[in-house]
Amino acid sequence: MALTGVTKNISSSGVLFTAEREPDLGGPIEYVITLNHDGVQEVNLRCIGKVLRSERMDNGQNPDPRRFQVAATLERYEFVRDR
User: Fold this and answer.
1) Measured in whole angstroms, how far is the alpha carbon of residue 62 from the centre of its chain?
2) Which of 19, 14, 17 is nearest to 76 (CA)?
3) Residue 27: C-alpha distances to residues 6, 51, 72, 79 (Å)
4) Residue 32 exposure: Cα atoms within 13 Å on the Cβ side
């Protein structure tokens, strides 16, 4: 299942992002991070990790489709090249 999210924070050991659905805690996760999105050439990283925590976001009165904040490890990655 593919979902779209927004990265909030990233480091060499993990990532924090928002998502539409709550993933399985402790389960494996594969995600793609796009770097240099507004630049001349995007760089995509395919990352593998596991879900550490997930919290429901409450933003008051306006419903947000990305309603979960998810923390995941970054255990492996590879560059994804355009074909």
Assistant:
1) 22
2) 14
3) 20, 6, 10, 23
4) 11
Give the largest CA-CA distance in the chain. 43
Distances (CA, A) of 64 to 18, 41, 45, 58, 68: 10, 30, 26, 8, 9
Q: Are 43 and 49 in contact (CB under 8 A)?
A: no
Q: What is the mean pLDDT of the chain?
A: 87
The pair phi, psi for residue 16, each rounded to 5°, is -120, 125
Contact 32, 44 (CB under 8 A): yes
Q: Which amino acid is at 68?
A: F
SS3 62: coil
**Mean pLDDT, range 8-16, rounded to an integer:** 94
What is the value of pTM for the model shown?
Answer: 0.80
Rg of the chain, C-alpha, whole Å: 13
